[in-house]
Design a protein that fits this description.
There is one protein chain. This protein is mostly beta strands. The protein has no helices and eleven strands. The strands form two sheets. Strands 2, 4, 5, 6, 9, 10 and 11 form a seven-stranded mixed β-sheet that branches. Strands 1-3-8-7 form a four-stranded antiparallel β-sheet, with no helix packed on it.
């Protein structure tokens, strides 16, 4: 089994920055794809970013967010810059042993493991 724990959420003013972390534990070898999703109140969960052999981003965060991973630390990061009130959501880390690519990157069922989420609130 794999456990994912997110951290780094909080309250930030519009235009500010936050970095989220996702620490993996358990059977972490072979986690080829790591991803971030978010869910705002009253909305469906939305794809934010993923990293495998390359990185992919949702349209609403391109140019502002950066996903990265440190395999030695078993940690995936989401650097969020130029935050907007509409970025307010619970952010979830997700992982897959497989390579999630192309039009599958935003589909939740291709990710086998999920964290509990961390709240990000952006004030205007």
């Amino acid at each position: 089994q794999v456990q994912l724990v997110e951290s780094g959420g909080g309250l930030v003013q519009a235009g500010g920055s936050l970095t989220l972390s996702c620490a993996a534990s358990g059977r972490t070898s072979g986690l080829n794809t790591m991803g971030w999703f978010r869910q705002a109140p009253g909305k469906e969960r939305e794809f934010v970013a993923s990293i495998s052999w390359s990185t992919d981003y949702g349209d609403s965060v391109k140019g502002r967010f950066t996903i990265s991973r440190d395999n030695a630390k078993k940690t995936t990061y989401l650097q969020m810059n130029s935050l907007k009130p509409e970025d307010t959501a619970v952010y979830y880390c997700a992982a897959s042993p497989g390579l999630v690519r192309g039009d599958r990157i935003g589909t939740e069922r291709y990710y086998d493991y999920w964290g509990q989420g961390t709240q990000v609130t952006v004030s205007s």
